[in-house]
Amino acid sequence: MGKARIPVVAVFDVGKTNKKLFLFDEHYKIVFERSARFLETEDEDGDACENLESLRLSVFDSLHEVFRRDEFDIKAINFTSYGASFVYLNESGRPLTPLYNYLKDYPRDLERALHEAYGGVAEFSLQTASPALGSLNSGLQVYRIQQQQPDVFQQVKFAVHLPQYLSFLVSGQMYTDMTSIGCHTALWDFEHNRYHQWVSDTGIAEKLAPIVRGDEVFSAAFPGSTYKVGVGLHDSSSALIPYLLNFHEPFILISTGTWCISLNPFNEEVLTKEELEKDCLFYMTYAGTPVKASRLFAGYEHELQTKRIAEHFNVTTARFKNVEIDWPTVDHLIEGQDIPVNLDAFGTLDLAAFANYEEAYHALMVYLVSAQVASTRLTLSHKSVKRIFVDGGFSKNSIFMNLLARSFKDMEVYAASMAQATAIGAALVIHKEWNSLPIPNNIIELRYYRA
């Protein structure tokens, strides 16, 4: 008798830089991991873009590898990847174009024409809960294909977001999931809870695959296989799932990295024009309910300014890794000061005003947290939120966490850590399809910060 095989779920987590495959056992422990990076290729305009063919081959290669291993019994497969990226598939499921980069310049006249046809940019953005972001509004990418490459558009059977393309590779089914449509795509009318009028007026609606919930699963396309295939999720929404399934009292999650995104799944109040101008938008949960979100480019700013401080004081940026908070320094810095809430404020200060790099770094964090608090407050509503969870890079920063706790005195502030939150979200959302145990309640480690 051989050893019993371990029941697992396979999750592909496709980031811009790293493409990962994880196998989780029924306790959500990682029992296998594989990582790949591919060289970017170019689209027809010479702009850098993801290599779709490498990605497709890599999915099949890594699946072959794990299916060959006797110790695992793969019960289900799911996918999560970055949003704002469309794959245009023809009748036989082949991509018709490169995977255009969401940072690609968008033709101004095209964007303007669309906005003006539907009440102007402010009105259009409010209805779709999408700040005008050019190619980052992925619906506008489809519009661009329709307008600029009509012959290609004609051959499109379905345009699907990247997570759903990955799922299609294994299930052979083309679907659209709510988390991908719901994220600054300019496709969804949040007030009426359906595609926006422009999507049907232009005929683009016919090119979008049928909508399913994010916890939907299909059978695999390969004869004789018994595992289930998830529909795939947009990564920001996926990272929220472990929190939604573990905590039922209203909370806000601040997911920190290059962007710091504050997510409030308990606020369905419509966006105002002011909020939109401050980079507020809606995301969507896997069940299709709105999540009010605000974005701040804080990780990027932190990197920029720590380099500036390091150069000025002639130290390496590694020095800032473990600076513990010094309250007297903080109090001295904010005494009689009105700290601005705009993110670039610290960049205008003369570093010669600070005694040493520790003081300058404390000042940077005071300014950064001031901007973060303003950004997070945009997602608050009349429904009282009792807890704030912070995950990602800043959750390990003592100064950031302590200052945040002091700013939100009436709430409990926690640093949350969970290895691979995005991948775990994609595994959890289809839990009942592969896992015979109850959902564990210790997936997220919390550390409480007192005001």
Automatic annotation (TrEMBL):
Q: Where is the Carbohydrate kinase FGGY C-terminal domain?
A: 249-432
Tell me which residues make up the Carbohydrate kinase FGGY N-terminal domain.
Answer: 9-230
Question: InterPro entries this protein is in?
Answer: ATPase_NBD, FGGY_C_2, FGGY_N
Which Enzyme Commission number(s) are on file for it?
2.7.1.-
The domain of life is Bacteria
Enzyme class per UniProt: transferase
Tell me yes or no: is Transferase among this UniProt entry's keywords.
yes
Please report the name of this protein according to its UniProt entry.
FGGY-family carbohydrate kinase
